Amino acid sequence: MTVLILTSEEDVTADMVVAALHSLGTPVLRLNPADLPGKAVLSADYAHGDFTGHLSVNGHVLSMGGLRSVWVRRPGEPAAHAPEPSPWLTAETRQALYGMLYSATARWMNHPRDAERARLKPWQLRVAHLSGFAVPPTVFTTSPRLAREFAEEHKDVVVKSASGPPPEEPGTALPTTLIGADADFSAVAAGPALLQRYVPKRADIRLTCVGTQLFAARKTAEPGQVDGRYGDTGHPWQPVSVPGRIAVAVREYVVLASLAYAAFDFAEDEDGVWWFLECNQGGQFGFVELETGQPVSEAVARWLSQVPAHLRPAGRR
Amino acid sequence: MTVLILTSEEDVTADMVVAALHSLGTPVLRLNPADLPGKAVLSADYAHGDFTGHLSVNGHVLSMGGLRSVWVRRPGEPAAHAPEPSPWLTAETRQALYGMLYSATARWMNHPRDAERARLKPWQLRVAHLSGFAVPPTVFTTSPRLAREFAEEHKDVVVKSASGPPPEEPGTALPTTLIGADADFSAVAAGPALLQRYVPKRADIRLTCVGTQLFAARKTAEPGQVDGRYGDTGHPWQPVSVPGRIAVAVREYVVLASLAYAAFDFAEDEDGVWWFLECNQGGQFGFVELETGQPVSEAVARWLSQVPAHLRPAGRR
């Protein structure tokens, strides 16, 4: 049984997981969907009530019957490397590749349809509430009046991007920014704003969830620091234990969201409360593993290799 | 409780359903996501473990607590009508709109995540098999050798597009085409091919499923006609009753695919067997309703208006 990794060629994090899979003796096939068709060949046959399929990359063949799991890491656009790429060729190739993979019985980390939903920030906050996390009051609005009222009610408020950096300029930094109720909110009418009550924090927390395994890391914040992603505080990421009620809430969240992998960001306030900021279903873990020594890539490799209990030979259950 | 229809401005089929909703006395709000922000205003507030949200279009306000159902008909791209549209503004607006709608408790026809999966042709064939339909043997492949072998095995074979007309030229016709085993299959290496055993048919069948209601229509085919979508045969669509085993298979299919609405296309062969060709989760029904008089738009309106049994006042269950 083989693990399929969908990612682009240069991906150091994938390299770490591939090394861990090799240590476990688990066969692995790496495919960049951009290389299909071309370097990769696909065939899926639907006949006589049955389905067979295979994928071959550089002479290595993976049959859909032998597919254990799919890790959706950083896949390129299907057919992006074709000699004559086009939106239509991409659409046809996406149909063939994902249609075949969805037809197979496999574990996904994470399934694209769950990943897509999990990216929606407002939905994240709703699920975080339902899961029992402390969530700072937040509003998404295109109404300047409601934005101002929110800022007046909560005094210190931050403004963020919901979708991340602009797709047309992916390198652009959009740091979370502190604003006051006297700010000019008129631009909110032209594009939805995400406003959130500011949480004065003494540390950033990154909690990585792999199946049922949790790895939390903590980095002390500088007093008054708003966005820990930009600017080095000089403090390292250090392993930290996970409070019991956080572990319960994480479990609730990943079940509600059907996620096998999730990276949670929290702000730890002066009282030690962990405030939910976001959950990134595709969040990086390389930097945490390097600084803390937490074996996240090994956990990912084990999850991908694992045979679900009901499929194991009887003696090994 | 209000029905929200996501569609573009010119949409005759939506007009038919809106008229049926008016007859039922069901409040309805129509939104083109392209008009947000601008004509439409949105606000979603996540505070104190709770969620409130509203959407207003031309002064009509819909609160998320009063949302009964969402009909995803033909929504425009979020923010497409903005004075300064950009991929980033679209991404932010999509986050705000769909993140808020996903946070609400509503019935969807169809939920975008189910719609997205249901569009994948290879997955459709797998689900059709599992549901008990007769499915013509089909292969999706980028291997010229396997394409030729398939054509040699099945003799009369048709080639189709999996994804439909090219997105860059949406008006282009890509009719299903009959080919022989002596065709040149070398181009398959440059783009995946969908090859299917040809079903000589005496009629086309369109079966529209709305919740648990089925409407089937039949159109006699010309002998030798391959693709009924292009060229008028002179035969009208006429209502036809649904065979029992087809009704069971349709029910299986829409449950496996989580679809509230689905339009199935079948080829009826000389023996009267209905062969599954495809299931379009967003398929048109206006032409069937006009030719057959089957009340599809009323059924859609009733499904959207319906209060699920467990939410009805006790006396009305």
Automatic annotation (TrEMBL), chains A, B:
Q: Which Gene3D superfamilies match?
A: ATP-grasp fold, B domain
List, for all copies, the residue spans of the domain called MvdD-like pre-ATP grasp.
2-112
One Pfam family from the UniProt entry? ATPgraspMvdD
- Which InterPro entries does this UniProt record tie to the protein? GRASP_SAV_5884 (IPR026449), MvdD-like_ATPgrasp (IPR048936)
Name recorded for this polypeptide: ATP-grasp ribosomal peptide maturase
The species is Streptomyces fuscus
What is this protein's gene name?
tgmB
